[in-house]
Amino acid sequence: MQLSPRDLARHIDHTLLKADASASDIRRLCEEAREHHFWSVCVNGSRVALAASLLEDSDVKVAAVVGFPLGATDSDAKRFETETLIDLGAQEIDLVLPIGLLKDGDDKRVLRELRDVVEAADGAAVKVILETCLLTRDEKIRACGLAVEAGAKFVKTSTGFSTGGATLEDILLMRERVGPKFGVKASGGIRDTATALAMIEAGATRLGTSAGVAIVLGHGTGNGAY
Which residues are part of the catalytic machinery? Predict the structure, then answer.
């Protein structure tokens, strides 16, 4: 696959979701995103206002996580969280699917929650995190269908906080199920250029990673990261 470093960077959500991330860490994240022209920074809700202020006059968007990392909060709480983060400056929402409800087979409640968050996002792209490492193949297929039906813009593999991250097999399956025009985000364990390019070749249109700088600087060197 042939991608320039700039084109590769525009696939990346430069991510920092650690609980101990300080304000100075967020400032560094945003500086790196500006320098390398990443698509977005992805941060926790308490850091959205800071990130939005730092990136106000740039081509970098601010993405925020909702219901993170378990997806087990009440649906009304997720809707309120989404509305609040949009008001604070979030331009994309990464929502953790209610995994337990999906496993219960309660697709109606899952769909209702996804639709509520899409509505609350008020036009901002919603990425539905499936947490694929916890799902069966059938559950992944159902989750993809619900995300499409709800009006989300992406399905996403992982939070990066569970038992596994993105795999090529999951990206191929998700791309197959959502079709050619829907977004697919690979997230979790993407730390080098070769892996990033393989995910894109398999069908990912966005990459969530904390190693964005290493991935872009390693592009074309043959070794991926430093």
Answer: 94, 156, 185
